[in-house]
């Protein structure tokens, strides 16, 4: 019998991409005539494009610019697609969990060519059961819908799953879905912020988690 579902965010969790998003969002905003501080962008990474733009520019912005800003970010980020790298141990972690009968599902705001590039970087497709992308949900994190869809894809209940992410949005989405949340510090978000958002455990990065599987929520079947 499968141990349960191991649900993973990708950007900042399995792949070293958060700061690429910061720089390319900063440039996309600049091209549209907006000066947005990079620390503010960093804290918003992990939201879907529309939510990120609204959070950073506010409800009083000209929404007619949203599509152009989002497209600019996608194009700028796409220039890095062949250089995206996974964190050390990311693929090995997914394979180790699959080997312990965990059903590995990705839950990410990425889609299309961007998601394909991320999966190539992780290089563990044989361990990934399914993916809940931004194309598959109406509301992205911190709404629970991506995590709920991942549960459906894995065929398990919330009590049989662990969600693994690096942002407060990840932790909030997991908590709202009733799923245990594990945070990584590799995305650059402070431990205190992740714990305040609902993290049940915090690890430095995927390499640390891989080395401590028997001292983690993945050590045995979850319910």
From TrEMBL:
It comes from the Bacteria. One of its GO terms (molecular function) is hydrolase activity. PANTHER family: BLL8046 PROTEIN, PHOSPHOGLYCOLATE PHOSPHATASE. InterPro entries: HAD-like_hydrolase_sf (IPR050155), HAD-like_sf (IPR036412), HAD-SF_hydro_IA (IPR006439), HAD_sf (IPR023214), PGP-like_dom2 (IPR023198). It is an enzyme of class 3 (hydrolase). Its EC number is 3.-.-.-. Keywords: Hydrolase. Pfam families: Hydrolase (PF00702). This is HAD family hydrolase. It comes from Streptomyces microflavus (Streptomyces lipmanii).
